[in-house]
Amino acid sequence: MKNNNNSSNTKLILLHPYIQKQGSSNRLWLLVFISFFTLAFLVTLIYTRESTTTTNATVAISATVSGLGNTQLPTTVINTLLHYSSKSNDSLHMSYSELKPISDVLRKCSSPCNFLVFGLTHETLLWKSLNHKGRTVFIEENRYYAAYFEELHPEIDVFDAQYATKRSEFKEIITSVKEQVRNECRPVQNLLFSECKLGLNDLPNHVYEVDWDVILVDGPHGDWPEAPSRMSSIFTAGVLARSKKGGNGKTHVFLHDFGGEVEKLCGKEFLCKENLVEASETLGHYVLERMDENSFQYCKNQTLSTASSSSS
């Protein structure tokens, strides 16, 4: 009976193949999981390599510039700054061929160099860095953006300006200004007290007192009919250059978007063709000389310029 009972209590244990398959499946999923993240890591590494290189270079350059104190920027630093600025993904950035002439003039500028820029752009921090030992001031039409940018970059001097012009009226405004050339719109004056429609007279007092060595007109933005365009900034740049009281008697004025209709006409009328030393489709480089306060003619061939513009 005991044998029968023992026999009846004997249990048969079978190992189902599923158990082995389940272990293999787990290893397979683990392999897939590791492969997926390895692939994702490689893709991310390849995609971000250029961005990381640019970021690291920018940080290294900024640290180098900050550590230079009052010494002149080395040529390698300047060239690196120009390279990475011209390679930006921003569609509105300047090309290397546009940046280089401005950089060359800033390098040759007597120290400290006074640099006035109309417009906050992709190159704002670049201009501040290139004029390492000098004074760099920016004029921006959007007061909210000016305040935001200055809060973001406290080392940048930004002032907002109110433009009372419309691009759709630029021909009428220029005609009116030329009629007032012996009064409110004369080429040599203190714009702080001017009532000329194209003169910016709401900037801080010291902006009018500085003898600017280099002026870049790269703002305001916009070429739609209601936009202020660059009439006032071009006119103001011309008056500031001619009205210098001291320092170097010459002022370099750069006009960006040189091929625009407003830029072409205002450049011809207020910066003058005889002062144009270099030009491309997008950048004009003028050199203006200080003028006598009794001068009432922007260009030597002002009469010819007026006749040709009116006939066109």
From TrEMBL:
One of its GO terms (biological process) is xylan biosynthetic process. Its main location: Golgi. GO terms for cellular component: Golgi membrane. InterPro entries: IRX15/GXM/AGM (IPR006514). Keywords: Membrane, Transmembrane, Transmembrane helix. It is found in: Golgi apparatus membrane. Pfam families: IRX15_IRX15L_GXM. It is a single-pass membrane protein. The chain crosses the membrane at residues 28-47. PANTHER family: OS11G0490100 PROTEIN (PTHR31444). This is Protein IRX15-LIKE protein.
